[in-house]
Amino acid sequence: MNMQFNLKDDFLGFIGTTEFLPKDFDQFTSTKRLRQLFLVLSNNILKDACFFSKYEQRKLSSFNLRQAFIYKINQLLPSNILKQTNKIKSFNFCKNSTLIINAYKNKKSFYISTTNVKLLNVAKLISYCYTNNEIQLLLDKDLLFHEFVYQKVKRLHKNKEVKDLGNAISIKGKNVNSLKIYTSWKDIQTNKPNIKDELEYAIKSIKNENYEQVYLVYPKANDFKRHIPVYVDELKNKNYVIKAIPYSLRSTIR
């Protein structure tokens, strides 16, 4: 099976000064807001290495993403942390962390696998962002959206069992029907929604896994602001609910 990816369609991020941002949608009508959106969403993916605070998200959205991540790397360097806090801190400078930090400072290429390696956070961030002597970072936009929805759902349903199934999210609780959520970053048009693949997953979940409710969740867009109920002939004898749901990302720019 050949997997083909299109940078503009499948990934968000940057290569050098070239930025890959989603097209304008919902309330994201400026480059500044789209950058802020990326910094917020990247927190869920890069949480083992860095976290952009609300202040940083707003401040750094005025600069291109390359500058934003260089700023963050420099802020995380041990020498800068010591200057900012004026406190004595201990840093466990493992060999690999030292090699990565020195290569970054000296603008030299390097390759160190981060698998099962205990690195300083800044070394992890550099290793994620530094390729072929250039700062670059590309993240799958479906993964970014999935993690955003998963984190929000966990916060909203603290009294229920919420599981990340990889390709879906499951919500179960006492005296409530089990719910399965499939996420996808697609531009949905209400009059002609492109949901064929996700709908097939939904049908299988209802037929084979006994889910009664399945939501197909996509980013809210200018032409997709209301739930779309979906009816399937082959499920006419079952009790089920399938809906295409617009999910707002506006909380990322508040």
Question: What report would you give on this structure?
Answer:
This protein is α+β, with helices and mostly antiparallel strands and 254 residues long. The chain starts with 6 loop residues before the first helix and ends in a 7-residue tail after the last strand. It is built from nine helices and ten strands. The radius of gyration is 21 Å and the shape is elongated. The mean pLDDT is 88. The chain has two domains: 129 residues, no CATH class; 113 residues, Trna Endonuclease, Chain: A, domain 1 (3-Layer(aba) Sandwich).
Distance between the termini: 42 Å
Percent strand: 15-25%
Helix content: 25-40%
The overall strand count is: 10
Tally of discrete structural domains: 2
User: What's the average pLDDT?
Assistant: 88
Shape: elongated
- List the secondary-structure elements in sequence, H or E: HEEHHHHHHEEHEEEHEEE
Provide the low-confidence segments as ranges: none
Decide which structural class fits the backbone. Answer: alpha+beta
Quaternary structure type: single chain
Helices, by number, come to: 9
Main sheet: strand order: 5-6-7-8-10-9
The main sheet comes to: 6 strands, mixed
